Structure formats: structure tokens, C-alpha cells
Amino acid sequence: MRIAVSGTHRTGKSTLVDELSDLLPAYVTVDEPYHQLEEEGHAFAETPSVEDFEAQLARSIANLDEAPADVVFDRCPVDFIGYLLAHEDRDAFDIEAWLPRVRGALRKLDLIVLVGIERPDRISLSASGDEEPRLAVDEALKELLLEDPHAFEVEVLEVEGSPRARAKQVLAHLADASR
């Protein structure tokens, strides 16, 4: 199966990917596009620009095109649409131009695991003033994935709890899907 773990920053996505990697040893994991691009020398602005998020969106689409059958992705194209829709320069982002490519890429996924912000928040936050954008992205992702206004038509599993509990929810979902 092709699984993507999605959510705003600092919700435990990468931790869940690590848990799933331990529990699904036959699966390949794909690091998030930000880290891939950074390793290749992409210089991100301190506060990522629309162009930075579009570069990550394009890489996420390419990752889906190139990946093997049994894989867990840290992020998917919808993550970057969420960030772009919550961005202060969102008017510079033409979602309609991206939708055909995003829909095509998402058809290659079997499941998106949505890791949202929980109440109380499981991740301790710094006093960086980052909370408002983080909440805006979380809200955008929940709308994009759970309400599906752009007809992405991909199965979504929203998880909560400790990292191990989240991983068990994914494994239970996979077991149910294989029946």
C-alpha cells in the first residue's frame, strides 16, 4: 500500500512515520520534500514563500510518481496546498492550475493518515508566535481532506493519541482494508 502521513507542523507526523517504519519493515519511507530539497541545496526563506511551498508541492507530486508499491510518505501534496491556502500571500497561489496534477498524484495513494492538532496539544510549543499559522494549516488540511471540496477522492484516516496508539490505528485500518 501507498500511505502518506499528513498534518501541520509539530503534530507528530515524522514520529508516526518512524513508528510505522518499525511496524512495517517491508515498507520504504520517503522523507518530506522540505528535507529532500534542502539536501539538494534549495535555500528556503526563513518564512517559506509561496514559491518555496510550490517547490515542495512539485516534489511531493514527483515522489508519488516515482515510489514503490509499499511506501510511507512523510507528507503528501495536500499538505502543501494547506500551507499555501493559509499563507499570507495565498492570492499568488493558483490552486486551479495545480488541481489536475494533484488529483493525478493522489490517485497513486491508498491512504492518507491525518495527524491533527489535539486538545490538549501533544507537542510542546516554543514561544515562537507560530501558533496562529499552525492552527490555520491544521484547519485547512482538515477541510481539504475530510470535506474534500476539490474531489481528491482519497481515503483518509484521522488518528489521535500517543505515537504508538496512532500507529496501531493505522495497522488496524490496514488489516480491515485487506479483509
Task: Please explain how this structure is put together.
With 179 residues, the protein is α/β, with parallel strands linked by helices. The chain has one domain (2-177): P-loop containing nucleotide triphosphate hydrolases (Rossmann fold). Helix content is 50%, strand content 12%. The protein has seven helices and five strands. The protein has helices spanning 13-23, 33-39, 50-66, 77-86, 95-106, 131-147, 163-177, and strands at 2-6, 28-30, 71-74, 111-115, 156-159. A five-stranded parallel beta sheet has the order 2-3-1-4-5, sandwiched between helices. α6 (131-147) links the parallel β4 and β5 (156-159). The longest helix has 17 residues, at 50-66. 36% of the residues are buried.
What attributes does this structure have?
about 180 residues; alpha/beta; 5-stranded parallel β-sheet; globular
Secondary-structure topology with pairs:
Layout: E1 2-6, H1 13-23, E2 28-30, H2 33-39, H3 50-66, E3 71-74, H4 77-86, H5 95-106, E4 111-115, H6 131-147, E5 156-159, H7 163-177
Parallel strand pairs: 1-3, 1-4, 2-3, 4-5
